[in-house]
């Protein structure tokens, strides 16, 4: 039975990515800057956002002041802990930025700009795009793009929805002039995809190598996180060819000190690995455009 889905990709012989300096693996750390953009009573939402928090034994039906406070920790403490860990070591990273969070916390944009990180759009607010009316989504994308540019001083070139894009998202991003999107989990290298007759770059993301594993699926200590990501890197370096790996971080999750200690160990270890290209997401996209333009 025919399908429009692609189960082949690069197949047995993926291209040599030709990463800078002969690196074998492009490693991109992503900090999800979301706190301030989640569902909130203050913004007229019917409930407080409780997703990806420390959890509760009994969730209230309406406003959850505990969950709000956990998001507050991410903005007030966790973000700055991660900012220090990366900037003190001179390690670049990418911010997946929720526009309303940047609008609400101007210090986010200042810190992203001063650190030289790139900001990719992560929604106008923390909401699903799947099922969103096209006109609404077009306006959301335009508003988010404008707000992120104002906050950071640079127009975002990449985009990543919260989990689920709509069937219109990629086309709307192309209309807005985005260089790439990361709304895919199906590969370990960038690839080109035709969108209304023109090539569009996809830089895949992944949720497996992500600090959400502290909130679910069993990682409990910083040491476990360090070992988990280190082992992923070591395996990928042992394989033929070259790949990319995204590591997702959340200030309210890995910004907690017992977990951040493992991240600090990971960053120190990463700096000892000569076969890694630790880079921003925009660097990967620009490299692919230069070295592997659409045929």
What does this protein look like?
The protein has a single domain (20-46, 63-291), classed as TIM Barrel (Alpha-Beta Barrel). With 295 residues, the protein is α/β, with parallel strands linked by helices. The chain has 9 helices and 9 strands. β4, α5 (169-175) and β5 (180-181) form a beta-alpha-beta unit. The strands form 2 sheets. Strands 1, 2, 3, 8 and 9 form a 5-stranded parallel sheet that branches. It has a 4-stranded mixed sheet with strand order 4-5-7-6, sandwiched between helices. The model has no long low-confidence stretch (mean pLDDT 93).
Helix content: 25-40%
How much is the average pLDDT?
A: 93
Counting structural domains, the number is 1
**Which descriptor suits the 3D outline?**
globular
CATH superfamily: Glycoside hydrolase/deacetylase
Proportion in β-strands: 5-15%
Instruction: Give the helices and strands as they follow along the chain.
Output: EHEHHEHEHEEEHHEHEH
Unreliable parts = none
User: Can you identify the CATH class?
Assistant: Alpha Beta
By DSSP (H or I, 4+ residues per run), the number of helices equals 9
Radius of gyration of CA atoms, rounded to a whole number: 19 Å
CATH architecture: Alpha-Beta Barrel
- Here the CATH topology equals TIM Barrel
Largest sheet: 5 strands, parallel
The overall strand count is 9
Oligomer: single chain
Separation of termini? 29 Å
Structural class by secondary-structure content? alpha/beta
């Amino acid at each position: 039975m025919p399908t429009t889905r692609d189960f082949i990709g690069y197949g047995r012989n993926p291209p040599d990515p030709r990463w800078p300096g002969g690196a074998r693996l492009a490693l991109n750390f992503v900090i999800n800057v979301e706190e301030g953009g989640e569902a909130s009573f203050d913004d007229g939402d019917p409930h407080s956002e409780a997703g990806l928090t420390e959890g509760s034994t009994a969730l209230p039906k309406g406003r959850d002041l505990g969950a709000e406070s956990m998001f507050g920790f991410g903005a007030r403490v966790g973000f700055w802990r991660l900012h220090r860990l990366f900037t003190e070591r001179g390690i670049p990273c990418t911010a997946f930025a929720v526009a309303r969070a940047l609008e609400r916390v101007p210090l986010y944009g200042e810190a992203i700009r001063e650190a030289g990180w790139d900001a990719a759009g992560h929604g106008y607010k923390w909401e699903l795009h799947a099922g969103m009316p096209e006109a609404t989504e077009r306006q959301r994308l335009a508003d988010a793009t404008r707000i992120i540019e104002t906050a950071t001083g640079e127009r975002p070139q990449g985009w990543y929805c919260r989990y689920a894009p709509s069937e219109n998202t990629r086309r709307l991003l192309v209309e807005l002039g985005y260089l790439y999107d990361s709304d895919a989990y199906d590969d370990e290298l960038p690839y080109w995809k035709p969108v209304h007759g023109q090539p569009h770059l996809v830089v895949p993301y992944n949720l497996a190598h992500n600090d959400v594993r502290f909130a679910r699926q069993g990682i409990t200590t910083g040491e476990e996180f360090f070992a988990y990501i280190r082992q992923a890197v070591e395996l990928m370096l042992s394989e033929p060819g070259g790949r990319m790996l995204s590591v997702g971080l959340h200030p309210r999750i890995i910004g907690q000190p017992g977990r951040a200690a493992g991240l600090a160990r990971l960053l120190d270890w990463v700096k000892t690995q000569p076969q890694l290209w630790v880079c921003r997401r925009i660097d990967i996209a620009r490299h692919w455009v230069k070295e592997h333009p659409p045929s």
